[in-house]
Amino acid sequence: MIAGDRSGPATRVTLVSTYELGRQPFGLASPAAWLQAAGFEVTTVDLSREVFVPEAFQADLVAFHLPMHTATRLAVPVIRRVRALVPAARLCCYGLYGPPNEGMLHGLGVEHVLGGEFEQALLDVARGRPPAAASALPRLNFLAPARGGLPPLERYASLQTQTGRRVVGYTEASRGCKHLCRHCPVVPVYGGRFRAIPQEVVLADIRSQVEAGARHISFGDPDFFNGVGHAVSIVQRLAEQFPGVTYDVTIKVEHLRRYRDHLALLRDTGCQFVVTAAESVDDAVLEKLVKGHTQADFEWVVEACRAIGLALTPTFIPFTPWVTPSGYLHLLRTIDALQLVDHVAPIQLTLRLLIQEGSGLLRLDPQSLGTTLGPFDERRLVYPWVHGDPQVDRLQAAASALVGRGLAVSRSDLFDDLLGLTADCVGVATPTRVSHARPRAAVPYLNEPWYC
Fold first, then answer.
1. Do 157 and 446 meet the contact criterion of CB atoms below 8 Å apart?
2. pLDDT above 90: residue 407
3. If DSSP states are collapsed to H, E and C, what string results for the chain?
4. Same domain, 225 and 265
5. Are both 342 and 254 inside the same structural domain?
6. Residue 279: its pLDDT value, please?
């Protein structure tokens, strides 16, 4: 490739990840397999675990994986640095947060922005061919990911249990989602579409990670039960082929209730916990977010999972334009009453609704949204909003500061502090706790905090 000419095929390709929830990045390993099979020299750089080495970016094409908000914000200064370091390289961004931020990325000098099913499009870019539009979601012939160039699994998040630490691998059995939750970043790219990854590809990826030391697999599907037959078959085969290897999955409250007959199978095939996006225990808020469940549904799922010994790990977005201080206190008291204090990462109790470019929330009228949005903030990559009650914003800031200072404090003690803080805000006595603390590892967990 001639310096300054960005139209021809690449020879050397560098794939970059800035953050993938503490897991070894599937978003690098999968396209690496495609590019290597086509004869390209591929370098993978995971900046969540590796330092920036300028030589790694001396490539014809540098492509950044943007699977989530935090990863995109972290990528922006790196893109600027690479643009200055290697001005002749073509820059590309791919993943869920590429298309919604296309204008901003082009302004940074990014030539190509690809969407969800990105492997073939990225290969086309490397070959110097025009890729399919970001809105296109072709049905791909997936290859088993190539993980050889990534840091070892031991350097990533591990599973903590009562019996000790387990090395964690990460894979995906599907992409996209059949549902249209209004705040979800999957929806603007997939629009209700869903793609299953062939079982043999998934199992080959698991096998390579087990051979590399993994004793637990984290499935990153937006909803593992979007294709419930596909999912059930995979975990049955996982248990048969890799005895003793455990796993975790993410499943909607709605699906946990609809497919309740499969919950015991998850437990029996080694599922250590199920992540579920409860988001709120206020039915009006759940309706605004188009979550497809109610507080009663969530409570039913909690009790159903507890009855069979399947750990549930709910996630929340407690601070929205519609919450009140009393509503936040209700959330805390519900978590306590359901004996979920040790199941919920404290950071989940501080999160503020992100309204990003392309969000379905932007289609709500101001009255339904409950707030007036500021102009898009390209540094924070959100439309900022201020709650109508300043007390709510102060409460969210205080809760975030409390949790941020308490990284070495038990979940139960932090929860007590949040309960007291909120009771003071509401002007009531601190409620008496219903549930009692258990040893931290009584509920298995991954030891890296979860961010979006």
1. yes
2. no
3. CCCCCCCCCCCEEEEEECCCCCCCCHHHHHHHHHHHHCCCEEEEEECCCCCCCHHHHCCCEEEEECCCHHHHHHHHHHHHHHHHHCCCCEEEEECCCCHHHHHHHHHCCCCEEECCCCHHHHHHHHCCCCCCCCCCCCCCCCCCCCCCCCCCHHHCCEEEECCEEEEEEEECCEEECCCCCCCCCCHHHHCCCEEECCHHHHHHHHHHHHHCCCCEEEECCCCCCCCHHHHHHHHHHHHHHCCCCEEEEECCHHHHHHCHHHHHHHHHCCEEEEEEEEECCCHHHHHHCCCCCCHHHHHHHHHHHHHHCCCEEEEECCECCCCCHHHHHHHHHHHHHCCCHHHCCHHHHCCECCCCCCCHHHHCCHHHHCCCECCCECCCCECCECCCCHHHHHHHHHHHHHHHHCCCCCHHHHHHHHHHHHHHHHCCCCCCCCCCCCCHHHCCEECCCCCC
4. yes
5. yes
6. 98
pLDDT at position 2 over 50: no
Q: Is the pLDDT of residue 10 over 60?
A: yes
Give the model confidence (pLDDT) of 84-101 as tens digits: 999 999 999 999 999 999
Q: Is residue 396 part of a domain?
A: yes
Same domain, 71 and 171: no
2 within a domain of the structure (yes/no): no
Domain total in the chain:
2
Q: Which of 10, 22, 8, 19 lies closest to 66, judged by CA? A: 19
Which range marks the domain in which residue 343 is found?
153-446
Both tokens assigned to 355: 């309204």
pTM of the model: 0.94
**Stretch 261-270: mean pLDDT, rounded?**
98
Kindly provide the b/e burial profile for residues 403-423, where b requires at least 16 CB atoms within 10 angstroms of the residue's own CB.
beeeeeebbbebbbbbbebbb
pLDDT of residue 228: 97
d(CA 281, CA 293): 10
Same domain for 165 and 121? Answer: no
CB 270 within 8 A of CB 306: no
CA separation for the pair 452, 446 (Å, rounded): 15
Distance CA 296, CA 298 (A): 5
pLDDT higher than threshold 50 for residue 5: no
Helix axes 26-37, 119-126, angle to 10 degrees: 50
